[in-house]
Design brief:
seven-stranded mixed sheet, Deoxyribonuclease I, Chain A, 356 residues, globular, alpha+beta, 22% helix
């Protein structure tokens, strides 16, 4: 479904007041990212360290818990962006998923089944079997090229001491004839402390910049989305010094990156909380071409954090934190320890009198 908006809604959504625009209608699409917090199946994979997420493991991860988790994840995804578009995201990147099976089970949940999502997924070398993936509505987005980029890390720069972590996934394709590029990330964690682990994320950022620069070398006006759980905030060196992200659109030049989450972070907003402190690790960063305001083709309108009340702990020690799905060795009935993030793309519909 391509959603169209006439003037009354546009005045509310976009603040359009110019009389010449009164006859225009707009199409709008949601792009999102969600850390699904260890969406594992309940069977042991002998090739990975997933033993905890089995019925006999310390997490007591049963088929019943798995099915409840799937239902919760599908509910959240189905509601992201619906306040404006009336439908679930056109494209959504996900991380902390174990394998293709859990993605198949996810998109076949009742809230998502009719959306006919496609899946792009590759197994990564991560020790626990944790991967990233891209889901897309097949009637709206057509992928034409995809590949993974391996992040090679070593303890003490010793090639014999490989640190196995997630790949970065690049998917290119077309949305209504417009070529878009999506990079899905899950950068190394802060295990051992932020400073001690920082270099791993700096290297992840270097790899990410390499992918982005390769896209820019083919097309300086490429429309690029790099999204994911970066395990760094928008002000971290990996973002500011390596990717050189900008906070203000007016500061952007050709082949540069805009981070709409930077301003949110400065306002105290976040996607996960720890020790009474909010972090905004989940981000969607876009190339400068997507920030133009002519709206002749798809451009960013706004970005946000999907933090509905039901996704938040309502009481106890962690009141106000994301309502995670697992704690104290058991399924809580919750969702994830991260909030999803999203942005809206809009463009002018050329013929407002023509119905789809």
């Amino acid at each position: 479904m391509n959603t169209k908006f006439t003037l009354p809604m546009l005045v509310f959504l976009f603040g359009l007041t110019v009389a010449a625009q009164e006859k225009q209608t707009y199409k709008i699409q949601t792009i999102a990212f969600y850390n699904l917090e260890n969406l594992f199946d309940f069977e042991d994979d002998p090739l990975t360290f997933d033993d905890d997420r089995t019925p006999e493991g310390k997490d007591h991860w049963t088929e019943k818990a798995y099915q409840a988790k799937l239902k919760n994840m599908a509910r959240v995804i189905s509601e992201i962006g619906t306040e404006i578009t009336g439908t679930s995201p056109t494209v959504i990147g996900v991380c902390e998923i174990e394998n293709r099976r859990v993605l198949d089970d996810l998109i076949n949940q009742e809230p998502l089944l009719q959306k006919e999502y496609g899946i792009i997924h590759f197994d990564s070398p991560d020790r626990r079997g944790v991967d990233v993936a891209l889901l897309y509505q097949k009637k709206l987005f057509t992928p034409t090229h995809y590949k993974t980029y391996e992040l090679r890390l070593y303890e003490e720069n010793d090639p014999s001491k490989r640190i196995y972590t997630r790949d970065q996934l690049l998917v290119s394709g077309y949305l209504e004839g417009e070529k878009l590029h999506f990079i899905v990330n899950h950068w190394p964690s802060r295990s051992g402390g932020e400073a001690k682990s920082r270099n791993k994320r700096m290297k992840a950022a270097v790899l990410n910049k390499y992918i982005i620069d390769s896209l820019f070398s083919d097309d300086p006006y490429a429309k690029i989305f790099t999204m994911g759980d970066l395990n760094d905030d928008p002000v971290s060196p990996s973002l500011i010094e390596v990717l050189k992200t900008k906070e203000n659109k007016k500061d952007l030049g050709l082949k540069q990156l805009y981070n709409p989450m930077l301003n949110m972070y400065r306002q105290g907003m976040g996607t996960l909380a720890y020790g009474d402190h909010w972090n905004l690790f989940d981000q969607i960063i876009i190339s400068s071409e997507l920030t133009k305001t002519d709206y002749a083709t798809y451009r960013i309108y706004k970005a946000g954090i999907f933090n509905k009340t039901y996704l938040t702990n309502s009481k106890g020690r962690y009141k106000g934190y994301p309502y995670r799905s697992f704690a104290d060795g058991a399924f809580t009935g919750g969702f994830s320890d991260h909030f999803p993030v999203y942005l809206y793309l809009i463009k002018v519909k050329e013929d407002p009198t023509k119905l789809d």
